[in-house]
Design goal:
Number of helices: 9
Shape: globular
Number of domains: 1
Radius of gyration: 19 Å
CATH architecture: 3-Layer(aba) Sandwich
Bound molecules: NADP nicotinamide-adenine-dinucleotide phosphate
Length: 306
């Protein structure tokens, strides 16, 4: 690889909670115990105004109305074991997060493109029979449709979606990135996320609750040389997530989450051997799991960092 691009550090001006960094959510104050009340008040306001916008705190879009039942459903779901869909579980952050969540008693629905790493994860994960780990490609709309159909049949509709599957271009000046490689980054990171949302958000709407976590990056909030396709895709994820947040009804929330900097195949691709200087996936996963499980509806629309 060429020279390592600058570190994808978190953005400035964020509030830190423990090891995590939190931005300002669409719904203002974070981790207030009064969020249900706030949602109820906003629900009443919306009904009074005849407006449909929900998750975006009064944006211009018209979202579905599910009222306070969604908040109650979300609260009930947050109190017990959750079913978590994680895309990209064959290695890196997705695999480590799957293992950690399973260890804590949550059920994982996981996918990635090849069978062997899925089998290896099945062999290592706690309580394997509770999970649904399968081969699926986020770039394919029909593959995501089949996955959604399978989780309905298995009664494993996720409470939380972690859109983690991602790829990065080989370090290269923007004008030298081959067209197919640029396409792969866009197809995986942006359109892959959209494919998941297209088939899984409707299931969450029926359940009236759900937390959608789209993996962003420090490079979704800053930039670096030689990774323009990747930066563009993660800036897109930030925008997509904020728009989605404005469409969701009470009970559902969407968050853009930067994982920080973690030693994975992806980091090695852009940092070379200095990737080894960063935290391991095993060090990262407990922090990430705690943060993901603690997200609340008032984080809707926020850009957060593990
Ligand atoms: N590591 C970091 O420091 C860092 C920093 C910022 C953001 N992130 C983000 O965190 C996420 C995970 O990154 P990572 O570092 O763990 O990357 P990684 O080690 O390269 O792992 C990527 C995962 O995504 C899966 N994947 C790729 N294309 C897929 C597809 N089309 N369908 C299904 N699964 C697919 C891969 O599985 P298969 O290849 O087997 O399908 C693999 O499990 C990415 O969204 C990345 O942008 C990472």
């Amino acid at each position: 690889m060429g020279r390592a691009p600058r570190e994808p550090i978190g953005p400035q001006g964020k509030r830190s909670i423990g090891n995590t960094t939190r931005g300002h959510g669409t719904h203002g104050a974070l981790h207030s115990n009064a969020y249900e009340t706030e949602w109820e008040r906003r629900g009443e306001e919306r009904r009074g105004e005849g407006a449909g916008a929900a998750g975006g705190g009064g944006g211009m879009t018209s979202g579905p109305k599910s009222g306070v039942g969604g908040v109650a459903a979300a609260r009930a779901a947050a109190s017990g074991p959750r079913t978590v869909l994680i895309t990209g579980v064959s290695r890196g952050l997705g695999r480590a997060l799957a293992l950690e969540l399973a260890r804590r008693g949550h059920a994982v629905v996981g996918c990635s493109r090849s069978a062997e790493p899925i089998r290896s994860l099945e062999a290592e994960i706690a309580s394997p029979s509770r999970h649904f780990l399968t081969v699926a490609d986020v770039r394919s709309d029909s593959s995501m449709a089949e996955l959604a159909k399978a989780v309905v049949e298995r009664k494993q509709i996720p409470d939380i979606i972690v859109n983690n599957a991602g790829t990065i271009n080989r370090n290269n000046k923007t004008w030298n990135v081959p067209a197919e490689e640029f396409d792969t980054v866009v197809d995986t990171n942006i359109k892959g996320t959209a494919n998941v949302l297209r088939h899984f958000v409707p299931l969450m709407l029926v359940k009236k609750h759900g937390m959608i976590i789209n993996l962003s990056s420090g490079w979704g909030r800053s930039s670096a040389a030689e990774v323009a396709p990747y930066c563009a895709s993660k800036w897109a994820i930030e925008g997509l997530t904020r728009s989605l947040a404005k469409e969701l009804p009470p009970g559902l929330a969407a968050i853009a989450l930067s994982p920080g900097v973690v030693n994975t195949d992806m980091l090695t691709s852009c940092f070379g051997s200095s990737a080894a200087l960063y935290q391991s996936t095993e060090q990262w996963a407990p922090k990430a799991a705690t943060m993901i499980l603690s997200l609340s509806l008032e984080d809707n629309g926020a850009s957060l960092t593990v």
